[in-house]
Specification:
Blueprint lengths: L10 H8 L4 H10 L7 H19 L3 H15 L4 H16 L2 H7 L5 H11 L1
Helix pairs in contact: 3-5, 4-5, 4-7, 5-7
């Protein structure tokens, strides 16, 4: 049985389901957003990727890293460009900004994530 389709507006819920370790941070940060709700780009920029970078640098929680990279791969394989863009800008751009982080991340990347990072490095 295949997973039901999802779109841009489902990314946060999908992320929190796949990566429940981020839920508390998300809920705490979301309370600060009084003018408008956090969007998927904000979640990647403020919550997911800073923690991923920290874990990569510290050799932390391997299981969480694997699941996070699997989630990124899922987004990059999505048929809708707006969903792929969240992972490309929110994750790949951040990973490519630091050589050490990128080197440590390579072993966890799926083919779509590697391809996306390669396009940022060209």
């Amino acid at each position: 049985m295949t997973a039901p389709p999802f779109g841009y507006h489902d990314i946060i819920d999908r992320a929190l389901t796949a990566l429940p370790e981020f839920r508390d941070s998300y809920e705490k940060e979301a309370k600060r957003w009084t003018e408008e709700p956090m969007g998927p780009y904000n979640v990647f920029d403020i919550i997911l990727m800073p923690r991923v970078v920290e874990l990569l640098k510290s050799h932390g929680d391997e299981d969480l890293l694997r699941r996070t990279f699997a989630f990124i791969e899922t987004l990059l394989a999505h048929p809708k460009q707006e969903v792929r863009d969240v992972a490309a800008v929110g994750a790949c751009e951040e990973l490519c900004a630091d050589e050490l982080v990128l080197q440590k991340a390579c072993r966890l990347m799926g083919p779509k994530t590697k391809e996306c990072c390669d396009s940022y490095l060209k």
